[in-house]
Amino acid sequence: MTQQSSAITAEQALAAAKKTSRRQQKVGRVVSNKADKTIVVVVESLKKHRIYKRTFKQTTRFYAHDEDNSCSVGDLVRIEESRPLSKLKRWRLVEIVKYGSGIVPVEQVVAEVDPNLQEESAESAE
Predict the structure, then answer these.
(1) Is the pTM of this model over 0.70?
(2) What start-end ranges are recorded for coiled-coil regions in this protein (predicted)?
(3) Which residues face 45 on adjacent strands?
């Protein structure tokens, strides 16, 4: 009986250890998804200046692995530390917390529709 109870507690401890990961997680906004299976996530944090005590916003860019290419620009995502996957990628996508509005900048839409139109407008501006 004691062997069974100790075996159950060992299994429970193992399951609990798998649930609590020691890897750091961050929540940020996707600013680029142009590369294949890679997203660029901007994480904003508030810092206090050590001398002037003024609070300022600091942004950090992280390159994260997106296996399914499921993220789009503007999505709010959770990323987690992982082993180095490339020169810059040390994070992986855990989940998409909130989908973005899907709004695309006008210049990007115009460039996709007619690349010559953008070149003509640049020439006429000169």
Answers:
(1) no
(2) none
(3) 58
Structural domains in the chain, CATH included, are 22-109 (2.40.50.140)
Question: Phi, psi (5° rounding) for residue 74?
Answer: 100, -10
114 SS3 class: coil
Cα first-last separation, the chain: 87
Question: Measured between alpha carbons, how far is 13 from 85 in angstroms, rounded to an integer?
Answer: 30
* Average confidence score pLDDT of the chain: 83
Residue for token digits 């003024």?
A: 54
Q: How far apart are CA 63 and CA 86, in angstroms?
A: 10
* Amino acid occupying residue 42: V
Q: Report the alpha-carbon distance of residue 55 to residue 98 in Å, rounded.
A: 27
pLDDT in tens, 27-52: 999 999 999 999 999 999 999 999 99
